[in-house]
Amino acid sequence: MNQKTVELRNVRRSFVQADVRIEVLRGVDLDINANEIVALVGPSGSGKSTLLQAVGLLEGGFEGSIKLNGEETAQLPASGHTRIRRDLLGFVYQFHHLLPDFSALENVVMPQLIAGVGQKAAEQRAETLLRSLGLGDRLNHTPSKLSGGEQQRVAVARALANAPKLVLADEPTGNLDEATAELVLAEFISLVRQEGSAALIATHNERLAAKMDRVVRLHEGILS
Ligand SMILES: Nc1ncnc2c1ncn2[C@@H]1O[C@H](COP(=O)(O)OP(=O)(O)OP(=O)(O)O)[C@@H](O)[C@H]1O
């Protein structure tokens, strides 16, 4: 059976602010196959982050069906969401949120230790990932000693550390200059492909989106 990594059906989310209801997602359907890298584009405020929060099981308040790796998540308790996030998902944000007092290597080791991997194996995996992103000679640098692009590469390595089935990224290169953004995104995509993960990557940048396998567009709460 060709199991989808993501299957969304009729996903809805609205927010009420000052007695006004805004319907941000009005019935989103989306399928992502294993190994498929999908760009999520849409104007500012169209709901890209909201949709990523739905797929990442980071917020409640959604209606509809969210299946990840074949498992329906809508009725699961919070502990089920935590398990899926830990076992299946990796996240990259616009601002890397690296641990400032830990080295690049330690930042990539940490999520593996939390997942129960042994220290030695975690260090080897972290080093392999960081080397494949060109950071072989930056393993022991703390984030403040790294450039913005290097910090974002560490965040990419961290997201992939536990071999997630699905990587979710919200404007992963949005804080970098255009040339660096392009380079880091190309490396990110190539590492996701090498690792055999699927990915959903929100971006404003159509040129970067065009480098992915497929582009989906959020407009007025619907995907096309
Ligand atoms: N917690 C919240 N409470 C109220 N409104 C919210 C909340 N979160 C998001 N919204 C509203 O939902 C809409 C979509 O926001 P979202 O951040 O998902 O858009 P986006 O496409 O990611 O935007 P950007 O590209 O600017 O990051 C916006 O109008 C925003 O104000």
TrEMBL record:
Q: Which PROSITE patterns match?
A: ABC_TRANSPORTER_1 (PS00211), ABC_TRANSPORTER_2 (PS50893)
Task: Please state every residue range assigned to the domain named ABC transporter.
Answer: 6-224
Q: Name one Pfam family in it.
A: ABC_tran
InterPro entries, per the entry = AAA+_ATPase, ABC_transporter-like_ATP-bd, ABC_transporter-like_CS, ABC_transpr_LolD-like, MacB-like_ATP-bd, P-loop_NTPase
Q: Which UniProt keywords apply?
A: ATP-binding, Nucleotide-binding, Transport
Indicate whether Ribosomal protein appears among the record's keywords.
no
The residues that cross the membrane are: none
Judging by the UniProt lineage, the source's domain of life is Bacteria
Name the Gene Ontology molecular function terms of this record: ATP binding
Listed PANTHER family: IMPORT ATP-BINDING PROTEIN, LIPOPROTEIN-RELEASING SYSTEM ATP-BINDING PROTEIN LOLD
Q: Which family does it belong to?
A: Belongs to the ABC transporter superfamily.
This chain belongs to the protein called ABC transporter ATP-binding protein
